[in-house]
Design brief:
The complex is a heterodimer of chains A (442) and B (482). Chain A has 442 residues and is α/β, with parallel strands linked by helices. Chain A folds into two domains: 118 residues, Urease, subunit C, domain 1 (Roll), CATH 2.30.40.10; 286 residues, Alpha-Beta Barrel (TIM Barrel), CATH 3.20.20.140. Chain A is built from twelve helices and 16 strands. In chain A, strands 1, 2, 3, 4, 5, 14, 15 and 16 form an eight-stranded mixed β-sheet that branches. In chain A, strand 12, helix 8 and strand 13 form a beta-alpha-beta unit. Helix content of chain B is 26%, strand content 19%. Chain B is of the alpha/beta class and 482 residues long. Chain B contains twelve helices and 16 strands. In chain B, helix 5 packs across helix 6, helix 5 runs parallel beside helix 7 and helix 9 crosses helix 10. Chain B has a domain of 275 residues: Alpha-Beta Barrel (TIM Barrel). The chains are: A alpha/beta (442), B alpha/beta (482). The interface between A and B is large, with 61 and 66 residues.
Chain lengths: 442, 482
């Protein structure tokens, strides 16, 4: 927790400089629509996480934005750009399974923060895809750390339901959405800033009522849309519409819960109602491994948490990821949870810390690539270096889970410039000589 | 007191003692009456909550065959460190083991000074967080020099033991940043104890926590101000002018008294007393300040009143004015890669620490977080690698000072700890590998030569009272309740 900030996070109207709204000066990305030549990455240490396995000296061929081949000594097609990876690690682009990327620029500047629903009860219809800003400066900052995909999700508001998440890519805009309605977020434990006024039985009563309403509504939805078809559910129509894919088992319910008893109760509900479920937070999930594994419920965690932030996570431990993984529970990592968007670049470090505490290295890498691809339903196009998938490929300057940095990041086959607002600030002030021209002209 | 020993009669001695006790009780008029009466530090008592810290028992310990990062820009391959009676007595390569010494084979291991976190709220914003223990900000008015973080510290915060498992041996606990002047901070040894006094770093100076920028405006903007940055600055200046006046009143009183005049002592104000000590440079300022313009303004304010800013904390824009900081001998306290959570943090860059260091200014890492404090070695690594990637030459022997020597310097305790040098407190971490890797753990932590944490030995892994009996079977984890 960043105490001095959290303690002060009283909402305040703060006028924001108009300069913020202006686009930053950055090199133009490759022109959209131009056919890109094939790219052959040679002599990489390839961690494909797919059919090709791991190749100590391998190649990846990218054509038309897709991975065309993974193997050894691949021939370069005519006109191909050839990159010699010189034995460096090559992995799929990473995916952060919980962020507010694209919907939050500066957490405490309200005008730039679209991540929180302002509704009293339920906000299942609160849809982040209405707010995604492809020009957010956070996106290049995450991208140049090797993060190429993210779940962007609403944060806890004042109701039980937070809203709907989406999967985005962090490549060339303007359309970043990969999957709309990737999950509906709900809190089933007293967590976060509302914890002191939420009572578990109240939460569950509201949650069950809304879900019951949704089932009843969807059973007779056509009738309600007839002229004069009055509806008798208390919940808002738009929320009930949003919950349709959830009660039909198509879209996961992302349940924010930390305490073991909360997780256990949520999993049981999901099983009984045949709902797909993903646990978010899950600091005591290691006590519920049997139920989570049997129900095939993945868990999104920050592997650096080991303190009881609240009474709901007394059992927080650095062994959480290891224990879940060993029990066969699918682990998904989020970046540092106090600001998973600004700190999206900590994603690989989080995975590395899980390894430091016992998780097998390849499982930790899967928790930021292949596992999220499957959990978020985009495994057909992302998550491994297999032919036919989008070419999200990263070449690293060292062990990707040990504080390394990319030397190249490809997203959907485009070689993204390793430039962000921060690299531009760095370059401007690198030479501190107070000379002409002044910094603002450099 | 020595002259009193020559008094022959017990009765006379008793009278003297009673007089001294009374003199203390009616402070400050009689306290050290022979002192220079214009010297505030000699007149105002400064240690109302004295340290009762006692080092834990220690064995003579020789760590050898390890890679030693001394904190003085030195890396010793196959090196050895000898700890005896709580002190470092030798650092080198061939050190003979004294009789009966515990010998630690450091093959494949690294040894560094204990980590010092200059900016922590462990204990004052403890885990678990709740309103009942939300004790870091006396957010009732914008200047509260009268409060002290040591009076808020809950020693049973599990955050202390977690930080210990991360190699932290010393931490400065600051009041929060709601207030322009937030109160005194306290420096603690990271030992477990039922009282805060038993953790207090003996001889460490107090600091005054002050805050620039958004936070005081946010808290007080609708409550009488300050509402603007100019209001912030006016607030500091008005507070210090009051302290100047307060000091003048006391100086006049001391002078009159010395001249034998019958005068009444001015009313005592414990907040202004602290500020008077700040004016007389007995208490340095630790200044929460993000932006380059705000730091430059505060340097001017410090010159106007003559106080000393030891360091700017959260100084995310220090890289823009590293030359100014160097010239004014003020350290920058920075994160490796935190940024953007609020507007004044928007211009932080990962190369910030390395750039400030390269400009010759004093720079260090800090956590401001009970999770970050557990991985300051990783944070230093992130900053070091970011610097190397833009071509700066930063040996790990140099980077280690960002979490050891430099915070010791900014806290005024470099003569006692912060480096592995003969005669210093034996605050030492043995790492199971290169500390600048995510895979490396602090394996053993010594504080004043005592083994206070051993990752491989549950019996040497302290847990706070709070954590006892919380989970069935206590099957929490590894060391220190992790």
């Amino acid at each position: 927790m960043r105490y001095s900030v959290i303690a002060l996070s009283v909402a305040a109207a703060l006028a924001i400089s108009a300069a913020l709204a202006q686009p930053v000066h950055a090199p133009a990305p490759p022109t959209s629509g131009t056919p890109n030549p094939p790219i052959l990455i040679q002599h990489g240490h390839i961690y494909s996480l797919g059919a090709a396995g791991t190749l100590a000296d391998g190649d990846v061929l990218i054509e038309n934005g897709k991975i065309a081949a993974v193997g050894s000594s691949l021939p370069a097609p005519p006109g191909a750009t050839v990159i010699n990876a010189q034995g460096k690690p090559v992995t799929p682009g990473l995916m952060a399974s919980y962020t507010q990327l694209g919907i939050e620029e500066i957490e405490e500047v309200a005008e730039t923060n679209d991540s929180r629903a302002d509704q009293d009860i339920d906000a299942a219809a609160f849809d982040v895809t209405d707010a995604i800003n492809p020009n957010s400066t956070l996106i290049p900052i995450a991208r140049i750390a090797g993060v190429t995909r993210a779940l962007t999700a609403p944060v806890m508001g004042s109701g039980v339901f937070y809203g709907q998440a989406a999967v985005i890519h962090l490549g060339q805009g303007p359309d970043l959405v990969v999957k709309h309605a990737a999950g509906v977020l709900v809190s089933l434990g007293p967590i976060g800033e509302n914890r002191e006024r939420v009572r578990r039985p109240d939460t569950w009563a509201k949650f069950r009522e809304t879900m019951d309403d949704a089932r009843e509504y969807w059973a007779q939805r056509a009738r309600y849309h007839q002229p004069g078809g009055a509806r008798d559910q208390r919940s808002n129509r738009i929320d009930l519409d949003a919950l349709g894919p959830v009660i039909q088992g198509q879209e996961p319910l992302i349940v924010h819960a930390e305490r073991a008893s909360d997780i256990r109760e949520a999993v049981a509900y999901g099983q009984a109602q045949k709902i797909r479920m993903i646990i978010l937070g899950g600091q005591e999930a290691w006590m519920v491994t049997k139920e989570l594994a049997e129900a095939h419920v993945p868990v999104i965690i920050d592997a650096e948490l080991n303190l009881p932030d609240y009474f709901a996570d007394i059992g927080a431990t650095l062994k959480n990821a290891t224990r879940l993984d060993a029990a066969g529970v699918t682990v998904l990592f989020m970046p540092q949870s106090d600001d998973p968007s600004q700190y999206a670049r900590t994603l690989a470090q989080i995975a590395g810390n899980a390894v430091a505490n016992g998780m097998p290295w390849d499982h930790a890498l899967a928790a930021i690539t292949r596992n999220p691809a499957q959990a978020w339903g985009i495994a057909d196009s992302y998550g491994t270096l297999d032919p036919g998938k989008d070419a999200d490929v990263v070449i690293w300057d060292g062990d990707p889970l040990n504080l390394s940095a990319p030397t190249s990041v490809f997203i959907k086959g485009i070689d993204m410039p390793l430039v962000s607002r921060q690299t531009l600030l760095r370059d401007r002030y690198r030479d501190l000589k107070r000379k002409y021209p002044p910094f603002s002209y450099r | 007191m020595d002259s009193n020993n020559s008094l022959p009669a017990w009765g006379a001695a008793a009278i003297v003692i009673v007089t001294l006790v009374l003199a203390w009780a009616i402070w400050p008029s009689a306290h050290k009456s022979s002192a220079n009466e214009t010297n505030v530090a000699d007149q105002f008592p400064n240690d109302q909550f004295p340290s009762t810290y006692k080092p834990l028992p220690s064995h003579t310990t020789l760590i050898r065959n390890a890679t030693i990062l001394t904190g003085t820009d030195r890396e010793i391959a196959g090196g050895a460190v000898l700890l005896q009676e709580g002190k470092i007595v030798a650092v080198g390569t061939n050190i003979a083991a004294p009789d009966g010494a515990t010998i630690i084979d450091g093959t494949g291991k690294f040894v560094t000074p204990g980590i010092i976190d200059i900016h922590s709220h462990v204990g004052v914003y403890p885990a678990p967080g709740s309103q009942a223990s939300d004790d870091g900000n006396e957010a009732t008015k914008p200047t509260t020099p009268e409060v002290r973080s040591e009076n808020s510290v809950w020693p049973q915060d599990p955050g202390f033991t977690r930080a210990l498992a991360g190699g932290v041996t010393t931490l400065e606990i600051l009041p929060g940043s709601a207030n322009l002047i937030g109160g005194r901070s306290v420096v603690l040894k990271n030992v477990t104890a039922p009282t805060t006094q038993a953790m207090k770093f003996p001889g460490a100076p107090y600091d005054l926590k002050m805050a620039c920028g958004e936070n005081p405006k946010r808290v007080y903007g609708e409550k009488g101000g300050p509402q603007t940055l100019m209001g912030d600055v006016a607030g500091y200046r008005m507070a210090f002018q009051k302290a100047v006046d307060y000091r003048a009143k006391w100086r006049a009183y001391w002078k009159a008294k010395k001249a034998g005049k019958e005068v009444d002592a001015p009313d005592r104000d414990i907040g202004l007393e602290t500020l008077a000590l700040v004016l007389d440079r007995q208490i340095p300022v630790q200044m929460h300040c993000y932006r380059s313009d705000q730091m430059a303004t505060m340097i001017d304010v410090s010159k106007e009143f003559g106080f000393r800013i030891a360091a700017f904390h959260h100084a995310v824009e220090a890289y823009k004015i590293a030359d100014l900081l160097r010239r004014n001998n003020i350290c920058a306290v920075m994160w490796a890669d935190w940024w953007g959570f609020k507007l004044e943090a928007y211009d932080a860059i990962p190369e910030g620490i390395a750039l400030v260091d390269a400009a010759g200014a004093c720079v260090m890492i800090h956590s401001d977080s009970d999770t970050g404090i557990q991985r300051l070695n990783q944070e230093v690594a992130v900053a070091m690698l970011a610097g190397r990637r833009i071509g700066l030459n930063i040996p790990r022997a140099h980077a280690v000072a960002w979490m050891t020597r430099n915070p010791a310097q900014a806290l005024g305790i470099l003569d006692k700890t912060g480096t592995l040098e003969k005669g210093k407190m034996a605050d030492v971490v043995v790492w199971d590998g290169d500390p600048f890797s995510v895979y490396t753990h602090a394996e053993k932590v010594f504080i004043d030569g005592a083994l206070t944490y051993d990752r491989d030995d549950p019996a040497r892994s302290p847990r706070s009272d709070f954590e006892l009996g919380q989970l069935p079977g206590e099957n929490r984890t590894g060391g220190a309740g992790q």
